[in-house]
Structures are given as structure tokens and as C-alpha cells.
Design a protein that fits this description.
The structure holds two protein chains of two kinds. In chain A, 35% of the residues lie in helices and 22% in strands. Chain A is an alpha/beta fold. Chain B is of the alpha/beta class. Chain B starts with a strand and ends in a 9-residue tail after the last strand. Classes of the chains: A alpha/beta, B alpha/beta. At the A-B interface, helix 7, helix 8, helix 9 and helix 11 of A face helix 7, helix 8, helix 9 and helix 10 of B.
Chain lengths: 330, 322
Amino acid sequence: MGALVEVRDLAKTFDVSAPWLNRVIERRPRQHVHAVDGVGFSIERGTTLALVGESGCGKSTVARLLVGLHAPSGGSVRFDDRDIAQALSGRDAPALRRRMQMIFQDPYASLNPRWTVLQIVGEPLVEHGLVAGAGPLKARVGELLQSVGLAPADMEKFPHQFSGGQRQRISIARALATEPEFLVCDEPTSALDVSVQAQVLNIMKDLQRSRGLTYLFISHNLAVVRHVSDRVGVMYLGRIVELADKRDIFAVPRHPYTRMLLDAIPDIAMSGRARTPVQGEVPNPLSPPGGCTFHPRCPHANERCKTERPALSEFKGVQVACHAVAEGRI
Amino acid sequence: MPALLEVKNLRVEFPTRRGTLVALDDVSFDIEPGEILGVVGESGAGKSLTGAAIIGLLDPPGRVAAGEIRFQGRRIDQLPAEEMRRMRGRHIGAIFQDPLTSLNPLFTIGHQLVETIQAHLPLDAAQARRRAVELLKETGIPAAEARIDQYPHQFSGGMRQRVVIALALAGNPQLIVADEPTTALDVSIQAQIIALLKRLCREHGAAVMLVTHDMGVIAEACDRVAVMYAGRVAEIGPVHEVIHAPAHPYTVGLMGSIPAMDQDRERLLQIDGAMPRLNAIPPGCAFNPRCPQVFERCRVARPDLMAAGATRAACWLHEGAS
């Protein structure tokens, strides 16, 4: 079993300059934000890679780059050994699109309110020509709805007749319609209540087991990530600062940012474990600090951290981008 | 000493064209001076509405239909609007979820703080400004003297929430109603804000009613917790007991559905179904269609809060148990 998805040195820059007139009159320069800045990872077939990080760290941009919703500014994404930027512009683009689907965060915004569930879940089937005729289409949509725990009779209803959790199941059913191998899930449970989140996470795990799905799971919730993932990448200001197996990252977090994130999780068991208080905020991505971008918040930062940007490198089986770890200071 | 806040049999209704919706039904609890009471529940459980009823900010047509709210022994649910307005801020402060919408974007934060301080305390402009700077420093805003003249958009989300906390504390209230104060923030900021809220309320001797959907926040911050379901209190008790030995089947399900950091489970415990809509609350216990331990009585008679171990739960399973 090889890697299904391989991402190398992926970058995405957005132009956030002021309008032309303001630039001319106020002599303001062009401005770019490096939303994703040299990200690399691979995802094995049938496994889940989770990307975690705070708002603005670029995790959703990575998700969009992977399914081709954004064109990368640099680097490459290979899916099943083919470059997707090329493949998606080629003649067999639909065949590739069929194999990867996305689930979005907000189940209220990602379903067309004027369409019935039959139209919503059936659209990819019709679009890709997978089903011919109204009868087979209904039968297939019914099957899909059943696989996510809804009733086939629900296909006549509109999205507003469902609760948030049920809507998210509809988006999962829609994503599964083309029988994809790879699902990109961008915060699929963040908008849901915990008991509903549990239902959706359970369904996603069941589907992975029964269909051998590969997931890229984007989340800011480390407890959820710990539950669903096999490998975890921690992102900070557009870069991966630590990439490791779930077991390693939660047992022995290496990067100071990973440690900080873990320390920030409320201690629900009330075990009274010792924690260092979290300090500072994420800097403005328009003018990130030089060197290691985490250095202003890092308790272990020294001169080298302020000037030289650490590369992601192998350290005792995990990948960490930190001078302090590499030098054995922590 | 009487409780700081007593809520008794509170019922909030929304009259609509298609009949009256009962959003809160028979909700009772107390808050002691200096105590942090958490109110937790899923969307639509009525937790924010409870907070809104206490600070007298129910959106019309919502109204308190029965029951009473007493603050320091005095009834406040029937107060005329003008008197309630004086009460808010001076005695009961409020913190809302979104720090950007609770600050006026057209005024500097200093202006807003000074205005609030002068509305409640007999200070002149210079004194009020000094107090505002002090408050900002207390809430951990760096370079408070300079930042006081900035506008809300110049602050980050976490910093804005600090300003909102400073505003809530400006009148030295005895009670603060905080409605999802950390929900809009990132985890690392959330931890800072909870720690800050806890510390400041202790220092100022203010009690807090902390409304949230996040059990983790409750565990971090609260002394006691009330778990709400479909407009009623399902369970209330000390935080430690509710988390480690929940008595109500809903609380058990709620706790089990939270992915834990310290144990591996292949599947999360799930409560099937969803909370009923207000116009379709089942007879008997509102949780009965989803309850794994349901029996005949639950479908016909509605349980009130009763002693259940160290907590109190509205569940027939505990009848006569203690």
C-alpha cells in the first residue's frame, strides 16, 4: 500500500493589495499573504491525516488546494501518482474529480436550500453519468442516505427540514455518491453540538472501515483529531511545524507550539495535570516574524530562532521544525 | 446569607401565531455570592435564554410567563425597564459571545469604558479614564495607556474579549452573566480568557453565570454546573460530580460523546436522535425518546429535580434512591 496523496513543497500566495487607485495615490506597495508556505506530507491509502492549527494557519487553504479549488502558487499535489494540477486541466479531469470529494464545515451553507435531498445527493451521480434514469437514481440516492443513517423517504425533503447533524449527513452522502477514494473534510463537525458531532464522527469512522476511504481531516479541535486520525500535522502560519503519528504527537509532543496547543485544551477530566499557561496570540500573517514564526511566543527561543527559519526534519521518528528540538535544548 | 441570585420556577414563553412556545419551563437554581455556576447544553436547550431572562434582555415577543427571579432577595423580573437598565452593568454585568458586535465600532474603547464607568459610578472624566486604564491593565492588555484611544477594529479577537470583560467589570457588578464568552476564540486564546475571567471575578468578588456548550470550559472554570435539555434543568450539582458521576442519562450521553484526551475509544458513545423542537416536546420526560434507560413512567409523568447521589437530577431512575 503506497501513498494515495503526496504533497510536496505546496505553496499558495494570495494578493491582498489595496485597489490600484489607492496604491497609486497613497503609494502603497503590493501585498501578498503566504497562506500556505512550503507544506509537504503524504497520506497512505485507508488512513486519516489530520491538520490542526488555529484560525489563519492555512489549514483550509491546504484542503482547497488538494481538491483543486485553488491553483497552487508553487509545489505539487500528486494523487495516485499523477499531478492533479495537470490532470484537472486535462481531458480526464472528471474521472479524477470523481475520486476525490469534499465535506464542508457549515451544513447550512453547503446545501442548496431550493433543492430536495434527491437533487442534492443525485447531482454528482447525474453529473458524472453514473446512473441513468429516474428509477435507478432514486434507488441509488436511497442507498446512500441509508449508509449515513437517514431514511430513503427523506429524499423528498428540503434541507431546512433537517437538523444540523442530519444536514451534515446529507453532505456526507453527497460526497460518497461518486464512490470516491479520498475525502477532504474541512472542519466537518465544528458547527455541530457534541452529541451530534459524536454521531457524525462515528459514521465517518464506520464508512472508512467499510469502504477503505482515505481522509484529510481539518480541525482545530485536538480531542476530535486524536479520535479520528492516524497521523497529525500541526500547522502554524502556513507551515507544518510538526508531523507525526497520532500516538507520538499526543504522548510526546516535540514542537513548543504543539505543546502549547495541548496545554490549552481544557482539562475535562479535572485530573489537575500540570500545565503551562498559554501566552500571546497568532501574529498578523501579512507581516509574519522573521526566523521561526513562532519565536515571539516560544519560551525556548534564542537568537538563532529569530533569524534562521527551521526546516521540517526527522527527529526520532517524527518530523519537527524547531531549532531547540534539533539542538537538544528541549 | 441568602443566595445572590435565586431563579424559581422560571417559565419563558414565545407567543406565536401558531400557538405559544414554551422555551423555558420550570427552571430553578441559585447562585451564591462569588460562585461560578456553569450552564451547559446543546443548541436550543434554553441556556442563553435563561441568561437573557436574568439580565432582562429577552427579545420580544418572549416574556417571563411564570416564576420569579430574585437578586439579593429583591424581585427583578417585574422591574420597569428604566429600573432594570440601572440594574444592568451596576449589579449584573454581561459578556456576550461575539466581542466585535458587543463593542461599538464608531467609538474608541476608552470612550466606551469611560461612558460605562460614569453611568454607574460617581467619578469625573479624569478619574473615570484612570479607572478605565486600570481595568484594561487588569485584563492584560499591553500598553493600556496607548491602546485606550484605539478603535475596536484595531484589536484582535482575544484582545476585544478582554475589553468586553473590562466593560462588564466597569460598574463593579456582583454578578456577571457570560454567554459563550470563549466560543468565538481559538483554543489558545480561549484558555487565556477563561483564566482571566476566573481570576478577575475572584478578585472583584463577582459571581458568574457562565453559559456555554463546551464541557471543557465548564470543567476549567466552574464550581457548580446546571445541564439543560429542552428548556429544563436536567441535572445540577458540583462540577466534579456531574462530570465523573453523572446521574441523568442525558448527562451520561453528553459526557460520553466528547472525545477524550486520555483514553482511546474506537467509537464515541452517541445519543441517537436530536433534541425535540419547542413545538414538539414529548409528554413526560422530554428526553424519553432518546433515553436508553426509558421506562413506562418516563412517557407519562414529568420528573422534577430530585436528589441523585451528590447531584440533583430530573430523572425517575433516582426516585426514592436517596
